[in-house]
Structures are given as C-alpha cells and as structure tokens.
Amino acid sequence: MLADEFGREVSGVRVSLTDRCNFDCVYCHNEGLGDTRGPMAPREHEMGTDDVVRFLEVVAEFGVDSVKFTGGEPLLREDVEEIVRRTPDEMEVSLTTNGTMLPGRAESLVDAGLERVNISQDALDRETFKQVTQAGAYDAVMDGVDAALEAGLAPVKLNMVVFEQTAGYVPEMVEHVAANEGLRLQLIEYMPEIAGHPEWAIDIQRVHDWLAEQAAHVERREMHDRRRYWVTPEGSDADGDDLRGDDGAVDESRAGMVEIVDPVENPTFCANCHRVRVTHEGYLKGCLNRNDDLRPMGEMTRPEIREAFRETVANRVPFYGEYVVEVDGEWVVNDDYVDASVSGDPVEGAPADDGDTNPPSDETAARSDD
Ligand SMILES: Nc1nc2c(ncn2[C@@H]2O[C@H](COP(=O)(O)OP(=O)(O)OP(=O)(O)O)[C@@H](O)[C@H]2O)c(=O)[nH]1
Ligand SMILES: C[S@@+](CC[C@H](N)C(=O)[O-])C[C@H]1O[C@@H](n2cnc3c(N)ncnc32)[C@H](O)[C@@H]1O
Ligand code: SF4
Ligand code: SF4
Q1: Structural domain that includes position 139
Q2: Which ligand 1 atom is at minimum distance from the Cα of 221?
Q3: Structure pTM?
Q4: How many domains does the chain have?
C-alpha cells in the first residue's frame, strides 16, 4: 500500500461519477467542486465506463481495497451497475446517493456487487426536506431507503448534514435509527466554505456532548478517528455489554449507530485520512478540500494512471492542522504551502478556474468535502 510523508496509507478511493444532480441542496459542496446546477443529460467530459474500471484495476495493484462512488448524483449515470460489476473483486464497493433512483435499481446494483449504500436524508419532516433539497422528492427518498433495505443492503447509513435548518431534527433522527433495525445515522458537520452561509454552521461539539449523554456505548472508528455512539430506543435500559451479540459486536436490533463526521473540530480526523479522490473528469485529488492539487492521468493508460497515483499519494498532506492552521480563530494556509497552493504552477491539463473548481482565492483555504 502506498503511504504519504505523514505515514497515511491510502486504502480507499472515492470516485465522483458526475457533477450533475436532480436535487439542488442549499448546502451542497459537490465534493469540493461547487454547483451541481445545469443540464442533467450526460456530458462528454465525464470519465467513461472503461476509464473508471481501468483506474480501479490499477489502484487495486497498490492494495487499495475500497471504492466509494459519489457525485453529484451518481445514479444519474446508467452505467453504475456495469462499473460495479467490473470493479476488482478485492474491493469493497459502496455508493453515496440521494436515494431517489434506488427504487427499481437497488436490486440490480446488489446483483452487480454493490455492498453498502449511504443515503442523504436531512430530516424526517417533509417541508424541511423540501426547503433543504429544493426538491419535493421526500417520498422517493423514503422509498429509496426501503428499496435498499429490501435489496439486502442493511445496514443503510443515512447522511444528515447538521446545520441551522436541520439541527433541531437530530434527536428525532437518532431515535429513528435507534428504533429501526437496518438503519445507521451519520451526522456531518456543515462545511460552509464552498456553499457559503457560515452563519448556518453549528457547534458540532454540542452534538457530541448530547450524544455522549444518550449513548449506551461509544466506539472510535480508525478512519478519520470518527466517534460512533450506540443509542438504544426509547424505553430500553440496555447498556454496554447487554448490547453485544454472541459474536461480541453490538447487536443492531438492540441499538442504533450514530457516527459523527467532524473534519474541522476533530484534530485527529485528517491524520487518519486514507482516501484519494477522483473527479468526474478524471483528475486525481489528494484531499477533498483542495482543488489546487488536481492531477490529470493523461490518456488514462495504465502506466500513466500508476504514475499519477504515486505522485498524488506522495504529495498528500493532512488538511486541518497542516495544510491550513488556525490563527486567531481563522483557518489560513500554512506558509509552507502558500506557493504550492495559491501561486504555484497549476497542474498541467487541470480544468481552468471557470467555476468548476474552487481553489483557495486567498490565504483562507476553501473547506469542502469529499
Ligand atoms: N473533509 C472531509 N469530509 C469527509 C470525508 N469523508 C467524508 N466526509 C464528509 O462526509 C460526507 C458523507 O460521506 P460519504 O460519502 O457518505 O462517505 P463516508 O461516510 O466517509 O464513508 P463510509 O463511512 O465509509 O461509508 C461527505 O460528503 C463529506 O461531507 C473526508 O475525507 N474529508
Ligand atoms: C455531494 S453529495 C454526493 C452524493 C449524493 N448526491 C448525495 O447527496 O448523497 C455527498 C454527501 O455530501 C454531503 N454534503 C454536501 N454538501 C455538504 C456540506 N456543505 N457540508 C457537509 N456535507 C455536505 C451530502 O449531505 C452528501 O451526504
Ligand atoms: S443530492 Fe447530493 S449532489 Fe445533489 S445537491 Fe444534494 S448533496 Fe449535492
Ligand atoms: S480534509 Fe482532506 S486530509 Fe482531511 S480528512 Fe478530508 S480529505 Fe482527508
């Protein structure tokens, strides 16, 4: 497995299959690339099926053992089943989706080899859901969750971005996953830099504190050093060891799992980051939050992919605490990287700054996600 200078091995890749979407969520960072609005028809610049598969075959040679397909809305592409089917067997295959296209496709995706799915669901309230997603597809998402469960994808992780509009729904969502076997919840710290509206952000530590009071059991996940809280349904007094099944793991019929994704507030999140990303246009990206290190893979021949992947890994840097540091409460680019990030040579062949990318515009870094 390749490792960067900070000792972080790269075990996973996240492939953005498209930047198109049928939703227009008010907070969307589009995996760090900005706006998803625009025509929904397939576009020429998206990586083709064969390119995606060839990329996966090459990184599998380096011991990469998991791939997540994301976007935009990945299921707008009709070749997801084919891509999943042709993904090397040794890789765990997962998908992050808004869920609307899972009814009618969940089974074919599972048949093709899909092992896990994360579905974005920010509230159980129809009106709030509509305001947040700027789409009225609440029922389609709920049907999507059911379709995933029926197709055997349990546990299904619900992704909820916690910000001003949704924070009040956290207790209800936590009870929802505690009471419904087969569901997990992921509470994602809102990242305002790409989407704007810093005033929407809330203090994620308050959510940790509240969950710590509710939880019957707490664990840490190695990836990103994320905290996982196991919460029992209302009325249950099960605790700690009572929750474990015969195999020693928490029995999900007795408690629901709530994981917090807090890249900014958690000082050991980036130090435990083991993922490299690929944009829908086929550029490697060492960090979700950076667009100044996009690296093309030439004509995507195997030697070119190998070389670009090696270089991307070699140049990876933990974002929070290393690439940006906190000065007077603001994240600013570390002086050691100023040349590389702001005025350094753009990667040859990388997309121009035409609104599709978000390089830090000054010394305050762009903070996005995936
Ligand atoms: N800054 C940052 N945010 C991340 C990272 N990974 C996930 N996130 C945030 O969490 C959101 C949801 O992530 P998912 O795409 O569902 O994947 P995940 O939860 O990381 O992956 P699994 O738990 O392995 O399924 C992303 O869109 C980001 O907002 C990361 O490496 N860096
Ligand atoms: C960009 S979407 C792509 C996949 C798919 N369209 C979906 O919504 O699941 C991936 C994840 O990013 C999360 N996300 C988007 N913008 C965000 C932001 N500004 N802060 C934190 N998470 C965000 C979404 O909630 C979603 O779970
Ligand atoms: S569904 Fe996903 S990609 Fe689409 S706007 Fe919402 S967060 Fe962004
Ligand atoms: S911000 Fe960058 S370095 Fe930190 S966890 Fe996310 S992708 Fe990894």
Answers
A1: 12-153+265-270
A2: 23
A3: 0.90
A4: 1
- Is residue 123 included in any domain, yes or no? yes
What does the DSSP assignment read for 151-202? TT-PSEEEEEEESTTTGGGHHHHHHHHHHSTTEEEEEEE--HHHH--GGG--
Pocket of ligand 1 (CB under 6 A): 68, 70, 94, 96, 118, 157, 159, 186, 188, 261, 263, 273, 275, 288-289, 369-370
Report how far apart, in Å, the C-alpha atoms of 57 and of each of 88, 186, 302 are. 6, 30, 9
Nearest ligand to the CA of 262 is 1
Distance CA 70, CA 16 (A): 5
Tell me if 256 is assigned to some domain: no
Per-position pLDDT tens, the chain of length 370: 999 999 999 999 999 999 899 998 998 876 655 555 555 666 668 999 999 999 999 999 999 999 999 999 999 999 999 999 999 999 999 999 999 999 999 999 999 999 999 999 998 989 999 999 988 789 999 999 999 999 999 999 999 999 999 999 999 999 999 999 999 999 999 987 667 788 898 999 999 999 999 888 898 888 888 889 998 888 787 777 777 887 777 778 888 999 999 988 788 889 999 999 999 999 999 998 888 889 999 999 999 999 999 999 999 999 988 998 888 877 888 988 876 543 334 444 444 443 333 333 333 333 333 4
**Cβ atoms of 184 and 177 closer than 8 Å:** yes
Q: Whose CA is nearest to atom 28 of ligand 1?
A: 369
Q: Is residue 7 part of a domain?
A: no
- Assigned domain for 1 exists: no
Residue 224 near residue 271 (C-beta atoms within 8 A): no
| CATH classification at residue 116 | 3.20.20.70
